[in-house]
Design goal:
Elements lengths: L9 E9 L5 H11 L3 E13 L2 E7 L2 H14 L4 E4 L5 H14 L5 E3 L17 H8 L5 E2 L3 H8 L6 H12 L5 E4 L8 E8 L2 E8 L9 H14 L4 H17 L23
Parallel strand pairs: 1-2, 1-4, 4-5, 5-6
Antiparallel strand pairs: 2-3, 7-8, 8-9
Helix pairs in contact: 1-7, 2-3, 3-4, 5-6, 7-8
Length: about 270
Amino acid sequence: MTGTASQKARVLIIAGSDSGGGAGIQADLKTVTALGGFAMTAVTALTAQNTQGVFGVMGVEPAFIAEQMRLVLDDIGADALKTGMLHNAAVIETVAETIAEAAPSIPLVVDPVMFAKGGHSLLEDTAMTALKQRMLPMAAVLTPNIPEAEALCGASIGDVDAMADAARDIAALGPSAVLVKGGHLPGDQVTDVLFRDGMVETFPDTRIDTVHTHGTGCTLASAIATGLAQGMALSEAVRRARAYVRVAIATAPGLGSGHGPLNHGHTVAPFDG
């Protein structure tokens, strides 16, 4: 079944939990719901974190991750998949194998989560090869930020031209499209770069000066997945996702003493009973 904007598009999210509610599964659930989709989850790990950082990670057994995925896909189905934190090679292998068996034709958005906002590593060193060999070739679109793109292509990225070069190099690893996010580069403008079918498309915007950006990567990837589930073309899904994230940053509630969460619910009218 193909999703359309008028129906409850089903998005299965395979990612880790954020106890602070700003990123991970919690951000994904809010985003898909706020954009009119129906979100389902397969939890890969539990994290103990808040706006100041990640203080602990407890992984879920790979077999149980696969069971979550299969049960949801067999009963409810999905119009798009989104992966987030896949912290080790065993988890990556299991998720890739389960997708290949149970959902090979469903569009997959891969957010290659490697680092938390505060710099904490969320991907074991030995998992990079598995990520490149198993997940990237399955991706309809890969959404790395600058540090993740540098890790994947093995080169430093200092400007938009280098972002485009990195996207081309990463696309050679197998994903159908690569969206390199430019938020880590300095300057008053933030540009994301999309590479697909040999073409580069840029998405520039002015930077919002705020520390409340926790979960932006998870949120953007889930917003793109929702758009694809609703039948949008990739470029259209990226544009709407970026617009949604931008307002979510601009209207962030200002919670916590570190990198605070976004306002995921800005599309939802208050319920007054």
